[in-house]
Design goal:
Helix content: under 10%
Structural class: mainly beta
Distance between the termini: 24 Å
Bound molecules: zinc ion
Oligomer: single chain
Largest sheet: 8 strands, mixed
Number of helices: 1
Number of strands: 8
Order of helices and strands: EHEEEEEEE
Strand order of the largest sheet: 3-4-5-6-2-1-7-8
Length: 118
Amino acid sequence: MPDHFQPRAFCHCTTCKKLSGGVGTANGRLRSDEVTILEGEELLRTYQPEEGTAKTFCSACGSNLFGGGWPESENASIRLSAIDDPLPSAPAKHIYTRSVASWETLPDDGLERVDGSG
Ligand SMILES: [Zn+2]
């Protein structure tokens, strides 16, 4: 993981809820060309929702790995759940809060909340 990688945001968009099976995803950001797949590249599958950017997951275990249109986009969202190493910080904001579900509670964590992509 590059030194400049930082956790960035919790995403509450409807697609992230579907693919996480919960309230959304937790993400950092890297340039797509900074991402190197060391093994298992043949297992990766990409889903392009009708709205929003492409999401990539592992077809063997179902883990969600990348969003933001990786690998074609300039920047990629990196799912924090895919990183086993400790991270230097936690995400700084909640994005797509306009898509918070009727059954979902945003934590009272004092983080910035953004209606859209932030
Ligand atoms: Zn999302």
